[in-house]
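Quick one: structure tokens for this chain, please?
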Amino acid sequence: MFEEFHNDPGGAAGERAIGAPGKVWLIGAGPGDPELLALKAVRALGQADVVLLDELVNREILVHSPRARVIEVGKRGGCRSTSQAYIVRLMLRLARAGKTVARLKGGDPFVFGRGGEELLALREAGIRHEVISGITSGIAVPAALGIPVTHRDHSHGVSFVTGHSCEGGGVNWEALARSGTTIVIYMGVANIASIASRLIAAGLTAETPACAIQHGTLPSQKQVLVNLGALAQAMRDAALASPAIVIIGDVVSLTAVGLRPLALRRAA
């Protein structure tokens, strides 16, 4: 019904089609480094009246929205957060009031960012909207350590999964262990011990290279590079916390730390 104006940058025809003056940009801010922001996102932020700001967005990016009202609508696992229902209601209300809204999210809005839910709400409400992709942290953060998530000599693919709810369904860890792909886990810090145990029980060896990276692409970045059997303990020892990305697979062995070959720490 609304396909005629989806991803239309604007114009009289689109406005006539829906009868609403406002617009929402669903923007990915990238993994952290503000210089990884897309040029199209910079242009959209400069046009915004309001920025609905995700918790994980680097605040330096707001320099591109000098005239916008900034509303914090942060969401972070394990913390008090703005409800998704409230965010959607606010986004729709602002657009219906004629505002140009930048919904600014960390990473990419369509990769574990609930951008898909917001897109459907905008379509159902008949609000003009456009999606601007960001570099997802599952690719950019490993790359910051020189880890390619795919390499034809080491992996025939990559699987992006959430580790937020390890117990009780969602991710088939056993199938992932047999898949032969690099496994990239978002939001997996709290459940990493259980995840590692399930992957090993399903067939991955405890010697499988693994890496966890906190605050990837930022000056505060820190990481542990170990084998899967040692991963949970190494993360505890390093006090590694969210936001962090976990990478499991042979591609991890391709990294260089200090421009020397990686010596993986082995499980005790």
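Helices lie at 12-18, 39-47, 84-96, 115-125, 137-144, 173-179, 192-201, 231-237.
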